[in-house]
Design a protein that fits this description.
Number of strands: 3
Number of helices: 8
Helix content: 55-70%
CATH class: Mainly Alpha
CATH architecture: Orthogonal Bundle
Distance between the termini: 28 Å
Oligomer: single chain
Strand content: 5-15%
CATH superfamily: Winged helix-like DNA-binding domain superfamily/Winged helix DNA-binding domain
Shape: globular
CATH topology: Arc Repressor Mutant, subunit A
Radius of gyration: 19 Å
Length: 192
């Protein structure tokens, strides 16, 4: 039995676009980047639904396709989520046959997550969806403009990372922001 995954409504992205064009054309860049990310994720989720894969599972699968056999803490860190979230996702993915948990004989508390053949085979089915979404996102945009946009976003990320480093050495303190997660988002955008 296939698991039902909610499909994003096409009107969601259209409403965001109208909002940006009409209501707040000069709003903060951070809001625009967030909405573009949401639109990319919705487009990808729509395609992942064809294989009943949730975006949350996609995120973990992507990590494991690159580095199989991480422990739960490492997987949480790579995904930028808390361990209980990872635990729940791994349980669900194990039931779906995508992963298996392995304990080492010398350390029964440490659990390592390994892809099953079924989980590994999803890569050839799902990665093309991400590539297609990326292509849709940049359709009609000159290659040079895509390069400049990418360089600009990387420069913004660098500035924010430097600010975070400076903040940690001064009196300003932020909640843990998981700079790693921002790098993963950059990687996700590259994969889209």
């Amino acid at each position: 039995m296939k698991k039902s995954v909610r499909s994003p409504r096409a009107s969601d992205t259209q409403a965001m676009l109208k909002h940006w064009q009409e209501a707040v054309p000069n709003d903060r860049l951070a809001h625009l980047v967030k909405d573009v990310t949401r639109a990319f994720l919705r487009a990808l989720q729509t395609r992942l639904n064809e294989h009943s894969v949730s975006f949350g599972h996609w995120a973990f699968l992507r990590i494991l396709w690159e580095r199989d056999g991480l422990n739960q803490r490492e997987l949480s860190d790579q995904a930028g989520v808390m361990e209980p979230t990872t635990f729940s996702a791994i349980q669900a993915m194990e039931k779906l046959g995508y992963v298996r948990r392995v304990q080492r004989p010398n350390n029964r508390r440490m659990v390592f997550i390994h892809l099953t053949p079924k989980g590994r085979s999803l890569k050839t089915k799902l990665v093309p969806f991400a590539e297609a979404v990326n292509g849709i996102g940049i359709r009609g945009i000159k290659a040079a403009d895509v390069v400049v946009t990418r360089l600009t976003l990387l420069a913004i990320l660098d500035n924010l990372a430097a600010d975070e480093t400076q903040s940690s050495s001064s009196q300003r303190r932020a909640l843990p922001s998981r700079v790693k997660m921002h790098r993963d988002i950059e990687s996700d955008a590259a994969d889209l």
